[in-house]
Amino acid sequence: MGIALGSWWAYYELGWGGWWFWDPVENASFMPWLVGAALIHSQAVTEKRGTLRAWTVLLSIAAFSLSLLGTFLVRSGVLTSVHAFASDPTRGLFILIFLGVITGGALLLYALRAPRLAGGPAIPWCSREALILINNLLLASACAMVLLGTLYPLLADAMGLGKVSVGPPYFGALFVLLMAPLVLLMPLGPLTRWQGDRWADVLLPLRWIALASAVLGLLWAWFAGSDSARAAIGLVGALWVAFATGYFVWRRVKRRGSGQPLLSAEMAGMVLGHVGVAVFVIGVMLTESLNVERDVRMEPGQEESIGDYRFQFVAMRHFDGPNFKADEAHIQVLKGDDLVAELYPQKRGYQGGQVMTEAAIDPGLFRDLYVALGEPVGANDAWAVRLYYKPMIRWVWLGAILMTIGGIVSATERRLYRRVAAKVPRGSGAEATA
User: Fold this and answer.
1) Residue 345 contacts residue 359 (beta carbons within 8 Å)
2) Could you report the per-residue pLDDT of 379-434, keeping only the tens digit for each?
3) Is residue 278 a contact partner of residue 238, using CB atoms and an 8 Å limit?
4) Are 368 and 362 in contact (CB under 8 A)?
5) Is the CB of residue 262 less than 8 Å from the CB of residue 250?
6) What is the DSSP letter of 173?
7) What DSSP letter does each residue of 261-281 carry, written as one string?
8) Which of 23-26's residues contact partners 24+ apart within 8 Å by CB, and which partners?
9) Which of 112, 319, 372, 402 has its Cβ near the most Cβ atoms within 10 Å?
10) How far is residue 240's CA from residue 245's CA, in Å, rounded to a whole number?
């Protein structure tokens, strides 16, 4: 939820119309989430099957260490970012030393004690344990890729190799490449038994779901007007996750008569989390492929069109706020002859010289209309104006909300809070109390 709120802040406050830019500070928050997601799944294997114990401990160390690394990047001043809110080398040095002691000490203990944790039952190739292990490897690889891209410019600069920029082309291409297999395998885990199963029993019931996902995903992309193969594949993958997760719930409903509960809190949280991933992928793929962005010069009386929408620049006004001076545009959005929205984007100058963009957004479940002011251009109250049409952008945060709710629901699982009776030596006279 914290990452989603940061994404929403960037979208609403910065005026560039984006929700994620692979900024180093964004990455610093994302890396512990990737490893933490792997950790939660690995813990399930350790609890239920008694294996992957050493790996689970290593993921725990990595998740906490990456959280400390994020604190260092944000608070030390080594990064220049709109998200970095401090520049204090003394504080940064303290955090770096703390990070070294905590991480180094944990890894030293791990090296000494890990052999005692190793072992456990063998993992068959067709089993829930094996699929979770593959899930772990993909998430850990994605985290390593993000870590390399985030730290390489800093290391290159420190070693005198010059200024190097690692941006969205690197992260976007490699992250999608690593996450595609994860999306493909995600629905199979809940449908596969622990300790071993048969691939035929797992895959054959899903053949019609796979076909329906492919057909509906391609049709959705075609009707939406997207000619991006990446978007079409993404929609197919998202529907595959959603439909297969629905099949898991349907199968539980069929078996309810055998005395099993419909869904435990742990299962319900898993369902919400996986559906959240599907919703998130739909939002990302359609937003990225159908997004329309236009930078134009506008003055009162002019209009610009994006698709079926006409943006009319009505007027410009200047006023003083409590601690700022603002320029505010009045823009009407029409679809045909119908007034859709009236938007009032602002450019504010605060005391001290800080200039902020206040975007105006007409939100909707299936599209956002987004207007931001740039800079004044010439006379007659002419301004550079950014106009955006962003389909399905809300689904990005809706997916994150569903994942968050899934985590909260899973955490209410009563089994996790079972009291364990204290072990008291025989003959102590305290057994009744225990």
Assistant:
1) yes
2) 778 999 999 999 999 999 999 999 999 999 999 988 777 765 555 555 544 444 43
3) yes
4) yes
5) no
6) H
7) -S--HHHHHHHHHHHHHHHHH
8) 23/81, 23/82, 23/83, 24/73, 24/79, 24/81, 24/150, 24/153, 25/70, 25/73, 25/74, 25/79, 25/81, 25/83, 25/84, 26/83
9) 372
10) 8
